[in-house]
């Protein structure tokens, strides 16, 4: 029993610090969503169902600009393509779990739960499935309530939050903190740099399509570098 509880609380401890960033991040989403015309219930439901901050911000921004629904869906799916890679990476560790637990893992798979769990699994190769699941859900425990709770707060207070608070600082900080440590190989770094450069170069495209195109170009560049690394037998 102790071996199951210990990883859970380790995960809880790893996930808890992210609440400090999720508070302004989710509050900001609530504010932006209501300013874009969503009701409090709609904003909260979106956070509960989607559970993907970047995709939600993208969708709400495009919706406020009266962008066609197809483009909104495409942009949100493109932003969330990384979840497919997260799932593939977690499958060797959690794929043997029962269907119900796998469904919960899929629901709770976000940047924070993925990044913390993969690092913990690498550091504890002797962990069994139950311990890995315990750690994963431990990370998720403080994150979802904070995300939903402060989405509600942001939706309720809306425009009463002064602009001087600059809550939008949480968006770049969150993703820098998550992405920077996992850019371990040349392929990762190339993919990130190419995507950044292309998103700037394609900023002229309507409906923020430049970001979508840049993401695909970045992934293609990273995949090509990784192919060459594999061919040469190098990994850094």
TrEMBL record:
Subcellular location: Cell membrane
Designated name of the protein: AzlC family protein
Stored InterPro entries: Brnchd-chn_aa_trnsp_permease
Pfam families assigned to the protein according to its UniProt record, in alphabetical order: AzlC (PF03591)
Topology in membrane: Multi-pass membrane protein
Keywords: Cell membrane, Membrane, Transmembrane, Transmembrane helix, Transport
GO biological process terms held by the UniProt record: L-valine transmembrane transport
Protein family membership: Belongs to the AzlC family.
Transmembrane segment boundaries: 12-32, 38-60, 67-87, 99-121, 133-159, 165-183, 190-217
Cellular component terms (Gene Ontology): plasma membrane
Main location: membrane
């Amino acid at each position: 029993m102790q071996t199951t509880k210990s990883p859970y609380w380790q995960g809880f401890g790893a996930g808890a610090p992210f609440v400090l960033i999720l508070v302004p991040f989710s509050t900001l989403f609530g504010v932006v969503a209501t300013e874009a015309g969503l009701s409090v219930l709609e904003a909260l439901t979106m956070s509960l169902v989607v559970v993907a901050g970047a995709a939600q911000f993208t969708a709400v921004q495009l919706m406020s600009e009266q962008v066609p629904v197809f483009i909104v869906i495409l942009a949100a799916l493109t932003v969330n393509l990384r979840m497919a890679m997260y799932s593939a990476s977690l499958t060797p560790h959690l794929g043997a779990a029962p269907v119900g637990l796998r469904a919960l893992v899929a629901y709770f798979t976000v940047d924070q739960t993925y990044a913390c769990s993969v690092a913990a699994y690498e550091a504890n190769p002797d962990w069994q499935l139950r311990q890995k699941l315990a750690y994963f859900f431990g990370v998720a425990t403080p994150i979802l309530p904070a995300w939903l709770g402060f989405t509600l707060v942001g939706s309720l207070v809306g425009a009463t939050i002064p602009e001087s608070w600059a809550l939008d600082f949480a968006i770049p900080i969150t993703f820098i903190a998550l992405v920077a440590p996992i850019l371990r190989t040349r392929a990762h770094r190339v993919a990130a740099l190419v995507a950044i450069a292309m998103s700037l170069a394609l900023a002229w495209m309507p409906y923020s399509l430049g970001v979508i195109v840049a993401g695909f170009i970045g992934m293609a560049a990273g995949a090509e570098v990784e192919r060459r690394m594999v061919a040469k037998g190098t990994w850094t």
